[in-house]
Amino acid sequence: MKYQIITDFNEITEEEWNQTLAQSQFDSVFLRYGFQQAWWEHLGGGEWENGSLRIITAKDDGDLVGIAPLFLTEVNGERQIHFIGSLEICDYLDFIVPAEKSQEFISHALEIANEGADKIILYNIPDQSPTLKVLKEMAGVGNWSVETEKAYHTPAIALPEDWDTYLMGIDKKQRHEIRRKIRRVEGSEEDQVSWHIIGSDDDLDKAIIDFTSLMENNTDKANFLRDEMRLQMDSIMRWAADEGILQLAFLTINGKNAAGYISFDYDDRIWVYNSGFSPGYGYYSPGWVLLAYLIQHAIESRKTYFDFMRGDEKYKYKFGAEDSFVMRAVISQKKG
Which of 2, 49, 204, 316 is deepest in the core (most CB within 10 A)? Predict the structure, then answer.
C-alpha cells in the first residue's frame, strides 16, 4: 500500500472518503466526511485550542483502502496525536479500513503519525473493533507501548420486530410504567399532546433554536453550550439535515415544546445524540413518553439498534439497553 499524509480536507474527496467508510470495519456517523470536516472547522466546539491535520491515507492499486483521521496538537508542552472528533461530541471513533487490512494499515499509519509526536491518545474506540486486537499485537512486538482502558459506557437496545415484543423484553415494572404514561398522554382531555419528527418542509432554523432552548433548561447543558459549541452544534445539525439523516423530534403540550431529542438516522440504527426538556410538564413525563415513541418508530422503521451512545444514565437500562463500552488507548514508542 502507498501511504500519504493529508493536511487539508480539500486533498481528499467526500465521495472517496465515504465509499471507503462504507467498506470499513466500523461505519459510524461520526466518521462521515461531513461530520469530520464540521468538527475540524470548530475544533470540537472549542474543545481544542490548536491542531494540525495529520490524516494518513493508503491506496492499494490506486484505490483508497484506509484512512487514519488524525490530528496533531500540543497539550501542556506535549505533542499528541488524536482522532479527529476527540473527545466530547463524537461518541464512536476508529480507523477507516476493512477488517482484513487493519493490521497492516493501522501499524503503518501509526508509525507515520508518530513522527514528531510524543504520544498517541485514541479515544472512543468501540470495544468490538478489530483495532483493539491490532493494538494489543503491537504491544507484544517491537518498541511500542500500548495501554487500553474502558472510557465510557455505550448502552444500546437490540430492537425486535415489533413493539409488543420489545415491551415484553424489558422489566415488568418498566413495561407497565411506559404503558401508563402513554395512556395518560393519549387519554388527556385537558391538554393537547402530540409529537413529531421535523421534515424537509419544516423550518430548520426555528427547530434548531427550539431544541437548543430546551437543552438550556439543564444547567450542565447550558454551560456546555458556550458560543463556539453553539456554532459547532448548529453546523452538525445542518450537515445532518442536508444528508437526510437528522432526526430532530419534539413532544408538544398545547403547542409548547415539552421535550426534544436529536438523533441520527443512519445505517441500521438510531444514534441518540442529545435531549432537552422544558420544566413544568412533569405530570406527563414528556421525556420518557417521547423516548418511547422514538423507540417504537425505530422498530417500525426496521432499525436494528437504538443506540444511546455514551453515558450510563439509569433510564437507558430501564428502557432495555444492554451495556458495551468505548475504549481509550495510549500509545507511545519505548525509548532506548
Answer: 316
Structural domain harbouring 265: 156-318
**Burial (CB count <10 Å: 0-12, 13-18, 19+), residue 43:** middle
Closest by CA to 94, choosing from 79, 104, 103, 84, is 84
Q: Are residues 118 and 250 in the same domain?
A: no
Do 286 and 186 share a structural domain? Answer: yes
What's the CA gap between 221 and 198, in Å, rounded?
22
C-alpha cell at 171: 422489566
CATH number at residue 114: 3.40.630.30
Question: How distant, in Å, are the alpha carbons of 17, 110, 207, 255, 274 from that of 3?
Answer: 15, 11, 43, 56, 37
Number of compact structural domains in the chain:
2
pLDDT along the chain (336 residues), means of 10: 97 97 97 98 96 97 96 96 96 97 96 95 97 92 90 98 98 97 96 96 97 97 96 98 98 98 97 97 97 98 98 97 98 80
Matching residue, cell 430546551: 214
**Phi, psi (rounded to 5 degrees) for 255:** 80, 0
> Among residues 222, 285, 225, which one has the least CA distance to residue 253?
285
Q: Is the pTM of this model over 0.85?
A: yes
95 and 192 fall within a common domain: no
Q: Cα–Cα distance between 61 and 240 in angstroms, integer?
A: 33
- Sort 191 into a burial class: Cβ within 10 Å, 0-12 / 13-18 / 19+: middle
57 shares a domain with 7: yes
Domain co-membership, 136 together with 32: yes
> DSSP assignment, residue 85?
T
Residue 80 shares a structural domain with residue 196? no
C-alpha cell, 31: 466518521
**The Cα angle at residue 13 between residues 12 and 14, in degrees rounded to 5:** 125
With beta carbons less than 8 A apart as the criterion, state whether 229 and 46 touch: yes
